[in-house]
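Handoff note, outgoing to incoming analyst
You'll be picking up this chain. Sequence as last confirmed:
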Amino acid sequence: MGAKVGSNGQKFRSPWRSFYFHILAVAALFVIIVIQQIKWPFVGYQKWIWYAFLIFFAVVSIDVLRKRFCTVLIVKDEEIAFETGFIGRHSTEIGTADIKTVDVRQSIGQRILNVGDIKIASAGTSGYEIEVQNMPSPYDIRDEIQNAGRNAKRSQNADFKK
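Most recent structure output, in case you need it:
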């Protein structure tokens, strides 16, 4: 990640490992159903339990895929962009020279998996404009954002002096 950020920028998405809760929920429900099937093998509503499990699995899978592929943080030399959406797209951009705060938060589980939440505030607002959950190596991303901000400020100062 220490490479120079180009005009196209670096794109960051939530890594697969950040969906540990989703995976644990599906696995736990599966184990419970299998245990129930072993204890009471000839109950008439077994196929409905499996149908319910498949629906649960489908809903969880759609949620994981939506969060994984429809959310991206883009770090460029001149701006930070946060894009969400699949069909309809929503984008928030902040100029790197205007960034006031980059906050990183990690729970215990996130620290173990090296993911974290990143919040970015600009000089023109009182709150956070961009809040991204479960980004990989959040401290490295924060450093990239801060370096891009410093470079943008130096570039503005050099242009101002000319």
